[in-house]
Amino acid sequence: MANSGSGNQGIAATNPVIAAAEKLGSSEEQLIRAVTLSHLVTIHIKSKFGRLSALCGVTVSGTGASCGITYLLGGGKNEIKAAIQNMLGNVTGMMCDGAKGGCAMKVATCTSAAVQSALLASKGMTISSTNGFIENNAEKTIDNFCRIGNEATSDIDKLVLEMMLNKIK
């Protein structure tokens, strides 16, 4: 279940979509398409996001899961774009402080947000481009999210690393 080198991200991109498909009584083909969409969106964002960031990578796979769930709810291209906007407008800023037990809680948080974002998107509701870094275009929103992760978090990385190392002393 790994995605982009991460087991947590693979689980977060797969299991929520499978659970939604089971709950909705989706066909095997719909399930396969939805899980594939989830993983492809995750890989697409992760390719711009980079391997390491101070932002939690599960926010990326949660976005993919939200797209897969939106598809299962009958959403098309516009609803899937709205799911991206909703997820990134919701969970951006979740900090990564190393792989550990707390990651499971972050996966749970992003899974809940993925379902919520998909439900809203399937009803035509999306975070407006007047909000923060959200753009009218989902791809531009992804680019802004990745800029935050790649350009704005180096000081956070240093600070968290210092805190972790000071615990050892």
Sum up the structure in keywords:
7 helices, 169 residues, 0% strand, mainly alpha
Percent of residues in helical segments? over 70%
Residue share in β-strands:
under 5%
The average pLDDT is: 93
Radius of gyration: 16 Å
Quaternary structure type = single chain
Low-pLDDT parts are none
Q: Count helical runs.
A: 7
Tell me how many strands there are. Answer: 0
SSE sequence, one letter per element: HHHHHHH
Structural class: mainly alpha
Q: Can you summarize the main beta sheet?
A: none
* Global outline: globular
Describe the structure concisely for a colleague.
This protein has 169 residues and is mainly α.
